[in-house]
């Protein structure tokens, strides 16, 4: 090991105990350096840590976007509803009820005829729809209202 001062010969040679202490200190420093280098070269662990971080970011962004979309759909439905005349809203409500009844009937028929894996997927879809019922109904009502307005303008 190198010393900061050159050996002039006037100094006493280090004792065996001092040499052992210097060797031990050097070993500890070397061990720490090797551990730091090993951590930097452990690509798999670093990639896994990065993957976890990215997954968390994606989950947070997905939740944020889902909330924004739900809010915008609800807002748009309210705007359409506010600007839609009462007779059109009544017709839209009646059409929505008819569509709902028909959908229930068709769903029951499909459930009776569908194989088990298809039923499981349909149940998952229904759970998702129930979880987002208000925005879905608002969007459906807005769509029906728009279609009725468009239809009434064509027949004038």
From TrEMBL:
The chain crosses the membrane at residues 131-149. It comes from the Bacteria. Residues 1-31 are annotated as: Disordered. Coiled coil: none annotated. Residues 1-10, 17-30 have a biased composition (Basic and acidic residues). The keyword Membrane applies. The keyword Transmembrane applies. InterPro entries: DUF3618. Pfam families: DUF3618. Keywords: Membrane, Transmembrane, Transmembrane helix. This is Poly-D-alanine transfer protein DltD. It comes from Streptomyces caelestis. The lineage of its organism: Bacteria, Bacillati, Actinomycetota, Actinomycetes, Kitasatosporales.
């Amino acid at each position: 090991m190198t010393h900061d001062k050159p050996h002039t010969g006037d100094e006493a040679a280090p004792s065996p105990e001092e040499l052992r202490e210097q060797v031990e200190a050097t070993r500890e420093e070397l061990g720490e350096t090797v551990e730091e280098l090993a951590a930097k070269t452990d690509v798999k662990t670093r990639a896994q840590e990065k993957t976890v971080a990215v997954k968390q970011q994606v989950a947070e962004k997905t939740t944020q976007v889902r909330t924004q979309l739900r809010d915008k759909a609800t807002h748009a439905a309210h705007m359409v509803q506010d600007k839609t005349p009462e007779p059109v809203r009544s017709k839209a409500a009646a059409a929505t009820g008819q569509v709902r009844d028909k959908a229930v009937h068709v769903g029951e028929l499909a459930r009776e005829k569908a194989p088990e894996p298809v039923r499981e997927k349909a149940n998952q879809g229904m759970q998702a729809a129930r979880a987002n019922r208000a925005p879905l109904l608002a969007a459906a009502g807005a769509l029906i209202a728009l279609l009725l307005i468009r239809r009434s303008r064509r027949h004038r």
